[in-house]
Amino acid sequence: MRGVTFPGGRTVEIMSFADPTPGPGEVVLEMKASGMCGSDLHQYRRPKGQPRVGSGIPANPEPVIAGHEPCGVVAAVGAGVAAAQAKVGDRVMVHHYQGCTRCSHCRSGWQQLCQEVPVKVYGNNAHGGHARYLKVPANTLVPLPEALSFSAGAAISCGSGTAYGALRRLNLSGRDTIAIFGQGPVGLAGTQFAKAMGARVIALDTNAQRLERAKEFGADDVVNPGSNDPVAAIKDLTHGKHADLTLDTSGNRDARLQAIRATKVWGTMCFVGEGSDVDIEVSPHLLRRQMTLIASWTFSTTIQAECAQFCIDRKIDVDRLFTHRWSLDQAEEAYQLFDRQSDGKGVFLI
Q1: Which residues contact 263 (CB under 8 A, 6 or more apart)?
Q2: What is the pLDDT of residues 196-224, one digit of tens each?
């Protein structure tokens, strides 16, 4: 089979790999949809020759198939996989991590938090979904309800699921005003879900096209930090109180600082975007405002399944997030466009 790889230097290479065969406890999926995620760009943009590695993730020196938003159909089942876990023909998403499988984190569906072994991340240091087939442990599978498309399942498998998990961490309710910094795929999904949860949403981005999409997805107000003071704008929009909750999906240093400063007294700010850092004066911005800072890294298998059901129950059209649908042969063009960070979300349909 052929698979998309990132050799570095903003290039894509489609390489040949052997079709996978499931071992004990494993399954092979026939891929149907594999989403493009902003974190792919860390691997795509890295200098050639630099190892493929993310925060705390051990590198793999061998070429690795990209794609950590996999969704497909079970094509083959290995020994020891019970029918209750997986059977041929099942429609499934993948929780794209594997830890030791035995510690409390792994057993509760949070394998990415495993402290016992180096964590595998499918599409990063282990083969991912940008190919015809994908081999994964059966314990990484999450059922995809018939009511959702494969592309929706791909989005929930990382980008949309990440936004949903962060809103769950924030305990968002219909009483809240939330300011979401960044309206890329994760931020836009956050806007979509936050509106479905009944909140008032202030969407922020420096890209006018993304702000227009945020309005289409239900944002009550939009702010462009490139032409406005976002902290002052949020203060004005909230009658001088600032936002109850803020969420940074951008990973941008300035946006993170603005999100902290735009959070009200007794409010909560959540970090989601990867990379960069932030410098903050603790006393005036945190201590003297009784502020809570939290972080949210993706989601558990339970929350992934909950997100899928939430989309069905609230009739959320996850497929609206996708502005481009590609074949694997178009991977180079797809990532060149995605690298500009000026458009929406893409998905490979296989």
Answers
A1: 242, 243, 244, 245, 246, 269, 289, 291
A2: 999 999 999 999 999 999 999 999 999 99
